[in-house]
């Protein structure tokens, strides 16, 4: 009933607005998912580059630094942590974080039983390691997790014992360097085996950064869509008034004039579309009406 009381222009605009609002909501939801996925991919791409960099640091440490420093592990009174690839990678990453693009990134080699308890995996990280152990085909995990400081987006990869040289410090306490036992004790970081997955290499970034990137892109795109819609509505309204509403109003005025006896009025036919066909039909009806009235007047 409400629509029936509206004029053609407002009725058309209302229906068009309803269609647009529905499409706008559906598009917004779809775009939100797409843009969030894109933001994740951008962060993941950066994270993977950093992981490759940290792996290069690890490889350099085990290949170049360990052979130079290993002889001192049994003679020095304290352990030299720079011989440990995980330590070197973590320290290098702390320096990387001093640059703006990576200041919000965090790196950890979350280990189930580490020598240095700084690398101890929490329950969430331990679950990741367990997933890597249960499925050797899983090479990467990512997602969101909640921390006391807020939600973060993480990327994790498995770390396994790939070199025999690692077992010098991690097989049994009696084979470990004396400086290691003196510094860290004989309780942690032992009974590792070759090719065992012992840790998860994680890089995380505050989720707000990921979500903000998606929100900013979404707001920009939806604003453009809204502007385009308003422009389209303005053009359609102009064309509707010019091509439909104005001719119909003219015909309504002519019909009213004819009904008052002004038979000289003509329904203007300015186009060959449906509006033009309607005007032609009205003119034929007026002519027929005029002939009928003339015949009726002659009889009287």
UniProtKB/TrEMBL annotation:
Residues 242-294 form the HAMP domain. This is DUF3365 domain-containing protein. Keywords: Membrane, Transmembrane, Transmembrane helix. The lineage of its organism: Bacteria, Bacillati, Cyanobacteriota, Cyanophyceae, Leptolyngbyales. GO terms for cellular component: membrane. Pfam families: HAMP, Tll0287-like. The keyword Membrane applies. CDD domains: HAMP (cd06225). GO terms for biological process: signal transduction. The chain crosses the membrane at residues 12-31, 218-240. InterPro entries: HAMP_dom, Tll0287-like_dom.
């Amino acid at each position: 009933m409400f629509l029936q009381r509206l004029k053609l222009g407002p009725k058309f605009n209302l229906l068009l607005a309803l269609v647009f609002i529905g499409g706008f909501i559906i598009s917004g939801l779809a775009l939100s998912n797409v843009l969030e996925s894109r933001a994740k991919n951008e962060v993941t791409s950066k994270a993977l580059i950093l992981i490759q960099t940290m792996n290069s640091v690890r490889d350099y440490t085990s290949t170049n630094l360990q052979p130079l420093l290993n002889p001192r592990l049994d003679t020095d009174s304290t352990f030299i942590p720079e011989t440990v690839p995980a330590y070197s990678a973590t320290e290098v990453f702390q320096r990387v974080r001093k640059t703006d693009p990576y200041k919000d990134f965090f790196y950890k080699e979350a280990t189930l039983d580490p020598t240095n308890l700084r690398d101890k995996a929490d329950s969430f990280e331990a679950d990741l390691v367990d997933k890597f152990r249960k499925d050797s085909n899983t090479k990467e995990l990512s997602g969101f997790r909640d921390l006391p400081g807020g939600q973060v987006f993480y990327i994790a990869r498995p770390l396994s014992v790939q070199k025999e040289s690692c077992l010098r410090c991690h097989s049994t306490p009696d084979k470990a360097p004396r400086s290691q036992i003196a510094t860290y004790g004989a309780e942690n970081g032992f009974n590792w085996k070759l090719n065992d997955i012992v840790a998860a290499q994680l890089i995380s970034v505050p989720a707000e950064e990921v979500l903000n990137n998606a929100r900013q892109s979404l707001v920009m795109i939806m604003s453009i869509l809204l502007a385009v819609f308003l422009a389209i509505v303005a053009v359609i309204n102009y064309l509707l008034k010019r091509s439909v509403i104005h001719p119909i109003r003219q015909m309504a005025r002519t019909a009213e004039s004819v009904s008052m006896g002004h038979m000289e009025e003509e329904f203007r036919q300015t186009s060959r579309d449906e509006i033009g066909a309607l005007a032609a039909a009205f003119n034929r009806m007026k002519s027929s009406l005029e002939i009928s009235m003339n015949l009726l007047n002659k009889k009287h």
